[in-house]
Specification:
The protein has 315 residues and is of the alpha+beta class. It has 9 helices and 6 strands, in the order βββαβαββααααααα. The longest helix is centred in the middle third of the chain and has 21 residues.
Length: 315
């Protein structure tokens, strides 16, 4: 897959950064925060920051959803990358449809080395770019979602939207970890497993979590009560991709999400919240995944998934 080592791109993975059925996630590398209390050099300002993301990436998705639902689309720019990776990870492609407005980069790793000339690590999306200081602020999707939720309220169209209320913070953090480990990373453990034993262990663990969450959602509308919180958007990014991508391409084929009565209703419920649908481009999502992993890049036409179909979760 390749990565940066001391600021130089190399096509092989360095020791400690090899992805397999057990090791999926690595340190993101940039950990600064935008704060509205003046304690850092990164302060909330309209048009100062840009969110770089890819419609394929589920980690990008939860940051993109929070940006939309907080009403920050006119405050924080959005920069899209080519749906499918190039030979040097995420890039802007060669069609001219996607361009980098910051430094005219052809590959995302160029923004990494501008920010830190000695950076060693994987090149991932999303990133939050500071146009004023010309550097990456943070490239952890959970941190970005939380920043968008709380630090830009003075500029947000919907400051009252709160996906991480303080009384639920401990439960949110615990459930974020559960969903991230069991589902977001779980599907990749199935894909990347090097042995039948590792694959089956990851497979069983994945569907055990889906069964558990389907049961939880039989008792309440969202994961932690009557309103969606951070773990709901983390889970949504996985569920909306599951039947079209993970079920077949990632060999996660015990059940589809449409086979779960509560998870399927719940997925449509979240999708139909105003502002969410525009973050889901299923054609680009499929093109990205199949362009990366499918021989010849042939993208299947199906399955037919009607996310606009009525649901029964009005309770």
């Amino acid at each position: 897959m390749g990565m940066l080592v001391n600021g130089v791109w190399q096509n092989d993975d360095a020791s400690g950064f090899v992805r397999d059925g057990k090791n999926v996630r690595f340190s993101s590398g940039f950990h600064d925060w935008v704060r509205n209390d003046g304690t850092t050099e990164f302060v909330p300002e309209a048009s100062r920051y840009a969110l770089y993301l890819n419609r394929t990436c589920p980690w990008s998705h939860r940051a993109a959803v929070t940006r939309e639902l907080k009403g920050l689309s006119n405050v924080i720019d959005e920069v899209l990358l080519e749906p499918a990776m190039g030979e040097q990870s995420w890039w802007f492609g060669d069609s001219g449809e996607y361009v980098d407005p910051a430094i005219g980069a052809t590959h995302l790793h160029e923004l990494y080395t501008v920010s830190d000339p000695t950076f060693t690590g994987r090149v991932s999306v999303p990133i939050l770019w500071d146009k004023k200081l010309e550097r990456i602020v943070n490239n952890d999707s959970g941190a970005l979602a939380r920043m968008f939720n709380s630090e830009f309220n003075d500029l947000a169209e919907f400051p009252q939207a709160d996906f991480c209320p303080e009384p639920l913070r401990a439960e949110i953090d615990e459930l974020n970890d559960y969903v991230g480990d069991r589902l977001n990373d779980g599907v990749y453990r199935c894909l990347l497993a090097k042995s039948q034993m590792d694959y089956e262990a990851a497979f069983d663990r994945l569907f055990e979590a889906l069964d558990f969450l389907d049961g939880q959602l039989s008792r309440q509308r969202y994961l932690l009560g009557p309103n969606p919180t951070e773990p709901d958007w983390r889970l949504f990014a996985c569920l909306v991709r599951f039947d079209a991508i993970y079920y077949s391409l990632y060999k996660c084929n015990l059940r589809r999400i449409v086979d779960y009565p509560n998870l399927w209703d719940y997925t449509r419920d979240l999708y139909q919240i105003p502002g969410v649908a525009c973050t889901v481009d299923m054609d680009r999502i499929k093109a990205g995944y199949y362009g990366i992993l499918s021989r010849g890049g042939i993208v299947p036409k199906g399955p037919l998934i009607d996310l606009d179909a009525p649901h029964a979760r009005h309770r």
